[in-house]
Amino acid sequence: MHSGRPITVALICLLLDASSASVTLSERFDRAAVEPRVERSQGAPIDPAKAKRLEWFHQAKYGLFIHWGLYAIPAGQWQGRRIPGIGEWIMNRAQIPVKQYEQLAKQFNPVKYNADEWVLLAKDAGMKYIVITAKHHDGFALYDSKVSTYDVVDATPFKRDVLKELAAAAAKHGMRLGFYYSQAQDWHEPNGAGNTWDFLADESKKDFDQYLRDKAEPQVRELLTEYGPVALIWFDTPRLMTPARGQRFVNLMRKIAPNTLIDGRLGIAGDYVTTGDNVIPPDVQGEAWEVPATLNHTWGYRTDDHDWKSPQTVIFKLIDIVSKGGNYLLNVGPMADGVIPQPSQDVLRTVGRWLRVNGDAVYGAGPTPFGDELGEASARGALNVRGEPLFLQNTQWRYTTKPGKLYVTFFDEPRAPFAIPAIGNRITRAYHLDGGGEVKTTSEKGRTFLHLDRPIWNPTATVVVVEFEGAPIRK
Ligand code: FHN
User: Ligand 1 atom 7: the closest Cα is on which residue?
Assistant: First the structure.
C-alpha cells in the first residue's frame, strides 16, 4: 500500500491549487489573510472512539456546504459599489458599521426557502452530508438562539427557524446535517475577533473570553441540544483561539454530543484535518481529511459571479480527492429569496447522475495503492508562487479501492492497452461499472493490461472495476 503521509494543516494551507482557475487573486488574498494554520500532532496513537466517530465520514466522501446569511442580500454590492472578494466577507471588506449591517435583518425574508428542496438537491447530487452556516463571521444566527436576538427568528420578518426546518427535512430524507459555527470571528460583538472598524483595533485588548462564554459556547450548546443529531461542527478561522480555549469547546462537545465530529479549524486538533480552501493535497494523506471548496469563486452568493465549475471538473476533483483519502465538501450560496442558484443546482445534479451509476468507485472507497499516476514534482526545479517545489499533476486517470476491487477512473482515453502496475494478487476479471460490460485483460511479466474499447465509454469519466483475489493489494 502507498504509505499515507501524515499532514499538517500548515503545510496544506500553503499549497495552492495552481492547476485550477477557480482561485482568484482576491480569494488568494483572503485565504492568506484568514486561514488558520493549525499544527497537528503527528504519529499520535489511534483513538478507537475517534475512529468510530469517523466511520460515516469515511463512507460519505462527498458533502454539501451551504453559506447563507444576511450577506446574500447585498450579494457583493454595497451602496452602489462592487465590493471585491468573497461575498460573505462584505461587512469586513466594506467596513460596514454594525448598526448599518444589522439593518439587513429587516429585509431578510426568504419566502422561497424550502428545506426539503435543499435536502433533496443534496440527495440528487449524490452528497451524503450537509454543512450549513449556523453563524458566520457576521455574527447573525440562522436559528432561534436564546442567547442573542441577532438571529433569523427574532430580527427578521421571516421569523422561521431555518435550521429547525433543515434539521427536520434532513431527518425525513436520511441526510446527515452538520453546522458551520464561526467560534472566533464575530463582527457583531465588541469582544468577538475580527471587527476592528467598530470595536478595538488592538484585539489583544478585547475580552475575548467574555464573548466565548456569553455567546459562542452557549450557541454551540444550543445547536447540539436543540437541532440534533448533529453530524459535525465546522469551526473556522481560529483567531485568538488558544489550545485552552479550543479545549473548552472539545469538552463541551464530548459531554453533550460525543459522536459529533469536530473539523480541523477549531484551534486545537479536531477529528479530521481541514485543508485550505480549494486546496487538494498532491498525494495520499493518512489522516481523515476534507477539502472545503467553492463551485465558483465565492461562498456566499454574489450577483456577479457566474463562473461555475463544470460537472467534469467536479467529478475529477471528487475522484482525485477520494483517491488521496479525503472528502469533498462542495459549496453553494443560496440567494436572499432562499433559492440556490439554478446553474449550481444543474452542475450538482449532473454530477449526481454520474454518481448514481459510478458511486461504487467513490462511497466508502479507499485511496490509491500506487500514487505515480497522481503526478510528480517538477524535474526542472520550478517553484510555485510560494517558492515551494511545483507539483505537476497528471489528470488522465485515478485509482480508488475497496477490498478485492480496484477502480480505475479514466478522464481521458488511455494508451492502448492500459497497463495496471504489477501487483501480487491474482486479477480475476475487469468490467465497466456502467453496465457491467467485460473488459478484456491480458498479462505479461506480472503486469495486467486492460483492452478498452474505443472511443472510451463515457468521455466525462469511465470507471473500470478490476477484481483481484485477496486484500489488501500486495506489491
Ligand atoms: O473566512 C471563511 C470564509 O468566509 C469561508 O467560510 C471559508 C470556508 O472554508 N472559511 C473561511 C476562510 O478560510
Answer: 277
Could you give the C-alpha distances from 66 to 72, 235, 301, 314, 371, in angstroms and in order? 12, 14, 10, 17, 32
> In the block, which residue shows the cell 500553503?
14
Q: How far apart are CA 95 and CA 81, in angstroms?
A: 13
Q: Which of 16, 131, 277 to mutate to test ligand 1, by most ligand atoms within 8 A of the CB atom?
A: 277
For residue 254, give the nearest of 221, 287, 288, 226 by alpha carbon. 221
Pocket test for ligand 1, best of 24, 89, 232, 236 (most atoms within 8 A of CB): 236
pLDDT tens string 439-469: 999 999 889 999 999 888 899 999 999 999 9
Q: What is the pLDDT of residues 22-75, one digit of tens each?
A: 322 223 223 322 333 333 445 567 899 999 999 999 999 999 999 999 999 999
> What is the amino acid identity at position 157?
P
Peptide bond into 334 cis (omega under 30): no
How far is ligand 1, taken at its centre, from the CA of residue 264, in Å?
A: 13
pTM beyond 0.70: yes
